[in-house]
Write a structure and sequence with these properties.
Structural class of chain A: alpha+beta
Number of strands of chain B: 0
Number of strands of chain A: 11
Oligomer: heterodimer
Shape of chain A: elongated
Mean pLDDT of chain B: 70
Number of domains of chain B: 1
Number of helices of chain B: 8
Largest interface: A-B, 57 and 66 residues
Number of helices of chain A: 39
Strand content of chain B: under 5%
Distance between the termini of chain A: 136 Å
Largest sheet of chain A: 6 strands, antiparallel
Radius of gyration of chain A: 42 Å
Mean pLDDT of chain A: 77
Distance between the termini of chain B: 41 Å
Radius of gyration of chain B: 17 Å
Structural class of chain B: mainly alpha
Shape of chain B: globular
Amino acid sequence: MTEQDREMVNDVVADALALDPDEREAFLSRSELTDEQYAEARSLLSVADGATSILDGPAIAFAKDFFAEADEDRLAGRSVGPFTIVRELGHGGMGAVYLATRKVGDKEQRVALKLLKREMNTSVFRHRFEQEREILATLSHPNISTLVDIGTTDEGTPYFAMEYVDGLPIDEFCSQNAYGRDERLALFQKVCSAVSTAHRSLIVHRDLKPSNILVTADGSPKLLDFGISKILQDGGEQESAATVTRLGAMTPSYASPEQLNGQSVTTSTDIYSLGVILFELLSGHRPFEDKEKDLNRILRAVAEDEPPAPSSKADTGEIAEKRLPFSSAADTSNEALTNANSLSAQTDSDNAIKRRPLAALRPQEIRGDLDRIVLKSLQKEPERRYLSVDAFNDDIARFRDGMPIVARPSTIIYRAGKFFRRNRAMTLVGALLVLAVLAGIIATVWQARIAQTERALAEARFNDVRALANSFLFEITPDIERLPGSTSAKAKLVTRALEYLNKLTADSGSDPELLREIAHAYEKVADVQGDPFGPNIGDVNGALESYRKALDMRLALLKQFPDDAELLSGVADNQQKIGSLESFGGDYSKAVPPLDRALELRQQVLAKDPNNFDFRRKYAESIKARGLVYFYEGDNKVAIERFTAAQEIYSELLKEQPTNDDIASEYWYLFISIGEALGWDNEFDAALASVQKGIEPLSQVVERHPADQFMQRSLHLAYTKLGTSYEDLEKFDLGVDAYQKALAIAKALSAADPTNHTAERDVAMAYKKLGQCQGGAGKLGDSHESIKNAIAVFTKLSGRDPNNAEAQYDVANTTFSLGMTYGSMKQFDDAVKAFESSLAGYKEVLAINPTYTYARRMNSHNHLELAKLLDTRPADKARAAEQYRLALDGFNALKAEGKFEKVDEPAVAELEKIVAKL
Amino acid sequence: MADIPKAEITQILQDWNSGDESAHERLLPFVYDELKRQARRLMSRERENHTLQPTALVHEAFIRLAKQGGVEWQNRSHFYGIASRLMRQILIDHARQHGAAKRGLAQVHFSIDDVTVPIETRANSILVLHEALERLEQVDERQAKIVEMRFFGGLSNSEIAESLDISERTVVRSWSVAKLWLHREIVTS
C-alpha cells in the first residue's frame, strides 16, 4: 500500500470514527476506496470496540508504579562482564551502583559495580563516564575506594567496578560507635588526607557528603564516587567552562557557593564541603538545614547567609533526645548490623539530605577554635577559606594538640583595625599602654594554656590577642615610627613581636593571608631593628635576619601568586633594604645582587601599572639605593648618573604632588648626594654648587616637620656634606660652621631618643668631621676635643655590635684622625700610639670583611702617615721604610683590582718616589 | 534531588535558539533528570489524585528548564518532541526492568485506574505497545510521532499540532486512527 493509499484509508477511518458504530459499515461502502483500502479500513475499525485502553490516558499515569519500585532489586542475577549483580546499592544522576560479585580463584570478590543507565547512554554521558574512568585509575590511597575493573556490558553499556566498602556513612558511623570529639576529629582528618591526595593529582571531588564517605568496621573511612570530579587543568581557558560544576549531580546541602552560582570549581570547593561535613559531625546539623526543604531558600542561604557557629547549632533539645538511643551500645548493635548491610552501605543516593540521627557534641566542646576552624572552611569566598585541605587538616591537628590555630575571625582584626584607624593620633603613651596590656594577656593566656584549664577560652583570647597585635604592628607603628624618642618603645615592641611572630610562623601552615601579614610584620620589625635609611635601634644583624624572613615568606607566596604586584613590591622592598644594609657593612658583593634584583622587580611592577605613584616612587628609591653602592665602591660617575635618574622621577612626582614633602625632601637631598659624589671625583667647585643648590630648599621642607626624625636627619647629613665640600676647597671656617649645624641636629635627635643608634652614630660622625675640620682651621685644641668625643661614642657603638665592620671602621678611622691631630700638635708619641691603634683597628675591620675597599684604602693612608711621622726621627728610619712599603703595597693592590681613588694619586706619586729611593 | 546548573542550561538554550541543532543533544541529560523528577513526584502522590493533566509532565519540565535557563526560549515545540521521545525511553526502560522476564500476550484493554492489574502485566503491555509503535513508525512516521507525543509525552492536541506544524484537526484524526492501528497490531501479533 502506498502512502497515498494509506492517507485515503486514514481519512475514511477517521471520518467513520466520528459516526455511530453501526453507521460505519454503510459509510465505508459508500466511500470510493479500492478493495485493498477497503479491507484495511474495515480491519482497523473492527478493533474500535469502545473498550477502555491504556492509550486513553498518558503513559506516565499508567506506568507510575514502575518508579515506585524502581530502586528494588531489578537487576539481581544479571551478568555484567565477569560480575554477577546481587542487588542495587543506590543510584544517582550518573547511574546505579550495584553490589556484584565475581569468582577470583576460589574466592568470591565483592565489588560495587557502577553501571551507566541504558537510557543515559548518550554521547554526553559517555564522555563523562570515560572521564571518570580515567580519573579513578590514577588514584591510589587507602582511604579512597580503589578501581577494580572497567568494561562494557554485552549491550555496550560502560561499567566500572570499585572496591566494595562494607561500611556506614561517616555520620552514622560516628553515631553507632558513640564517637566523642577527638575520635570524630581523628576520623575526619583521615578523610582530609584522602581528599588531599586527590587534590595533589589535580582531582576535585565536587560532591563530598557523608553518604560518599563510608567508614568500615575498623574505622577506616573510604571516599566513594568521583563521579563528577574532573581533572583541573592549569589555566586552560577552554577548560574553564567545563570545570564549572554540573549541579545536576550535586547535593545542595554540601555544595559551595561557587558551585551553586555556576562559577568555576577548585579544590577550595571540596574544602567547603568538608567544612559542612565537619559542621555536621560536630553539631549534628548542617549549617542551613532549616532551609533545605525549599530549594530556593537553601540556594540563597548558601550564597548569602553567614553560617552559624556549629556550637550554636549543637545546643538544641532535639539533639539531646537523639543522644539517648546511642547511649546504650547494646540496644543498637542489631540496628547497626542491619544498617551496615542495607541500602546505606555504598549508597549513591539522591536522598542524602535526609536527617541523620547523629548525636551532637556539647556546645562547650565545639565553642571557640572548632567554631573558627569550621567557619573558616565555610567562607563564601574560596580564597578566604583554608588554602588547602592540608592546611585545614593541620589546623585540626593543632587544635587536637592544644596548639593555637591559624583560623581566626576576620571580624576582630577588622574591628581592631578600625579602632586604631579612628585613633590615629594615639600617643606613644597610649601605644605603650596597649603593648603592656597585650603582654599581660599573652602571659595570662600562656599560663592558662599550660594549666590546660579553660583552654577554649584561653585560645579564643589568644586569637584575639594575635589580631590585636597585628593591628598594633600595622596601625600603630607607622604613627610612632618617626616620632623622636619612640625607638626604645619600638625595641620593646620588636622583642615582643619577634617572640610572637616566631610562634606564629611555626603555626601558620600555608594560609597565604596570614603569611602575608607575618611577612609584613617581620619587615616592620626589621625596620625598627635597623632600617638602613630610617630611625632604628642599631641591630643590623637582627634587621638582616628579619628582612630575610620577610623575604623568604614573600618568595614562597610568590610561587603561588606570581603576578601579585603587592608581593613583588614587597620582595623588592626587602631586597633593597637587605642590599642597603649589606652595603653599609661594606660588603658590596653581598649588597649588589639584592639591589639589582630589587631594581628588576620594581621595573616589572611598574611595567604593569606605569602611572602608579607609589611604584614610581619606589623605583626612584631603588635607583638611588643602587647608586649609593656605586658611590661607595668609588664609581662616582655612574653614581651621579643614577642619582640624576632618580631625581628626574622625583621631579615628575613632585609636579603631581607639589605639597608632598617626603618627595620634596628626596628630590632636594639628591642634590646633596650628587654633590658628594662630585667631590669624590675631585670636582670640588661643582660639588659645593650642587650641595648649596639643595640645602636651602631642603631646610625649608624639613622645618615644616620638626618631629620627623627621618627628615631632620637628612638635613643633618646635608650640613655634613656641605662641611665636607668647604673642607675640600680648604674653606675650613665655613666647614666648621656647617659641621656644627650638623652636630646640633644630631645631638637633638639623639637627646630626644637616647636609644636611637643612628642618631648616636651621627653625633659621633659629626664630632669627628668637626674635629678634622677644626684641625684644618688650625684650632688644634678644639679638634682634639671633638675627635676624642667622636672616638668615645664610636667605641660605645662598636661594642654593641662587635661584628659590624662599619662600626669597627668608625673607631679605627677616628683614631687615625686623632693621630693626625696629635701629629699637627707635634705630640709625637701620642700620634704614633694613635696610628698604631688605628692600624690594629683596620686589621680587625679587614678580618671581618676583607673586601672592605674603603678600609683598605684608609689602612694604606694610615701606613703612609705613620711612616711620615717616623721618618722625622732618625732612630725610626727603618720602621718608617717598612711603613712606606706597606702603604705602597696597599695602594698598588687596590690599583691592580681597579679600586683606586683619584684623590689618592698625589699621595701615591709621593710614595713611589720615596720607596724608589729606599 | 539534584538541581540544574543554570549557566549551562542557559548556554544550551541560547545555542538552541540561535539554531545550533546539536544543543538538544546536550540538553537531553537535563530533560531526562527533569522528567524523572516529575515522574518521581507523581509516585509520591496519593492514589486518589491520579487524575492527571495530560500535559503536566512535559509541560512542567519545559517551564522549569526555561526558567532555569532564564532565557526567552522559542523552541518550545521542538522541545516537546524531544521530551516525549525521552519520556518514552524512560518508561520503556523502567518497564523492561519490571517485566523483562515474561513476554507474550499483552493486554491493552484495561483502564489506567485499574489497580488490580499486576505491575508485570502493565509493564509488558507498555513494552508491547512500544514495539508496535516501532512498527507504526515504519509505516506512518507522523502518526507514530503523534502517538509518542500524546501518550508518552502527555501533550495536548494543540501542542502536538504546533510542534508538528499541522492542524489540530489532523492531530485528532490521526490519533484516532493510530490507536486503532496499534490495537490491531498488538492483538494480531
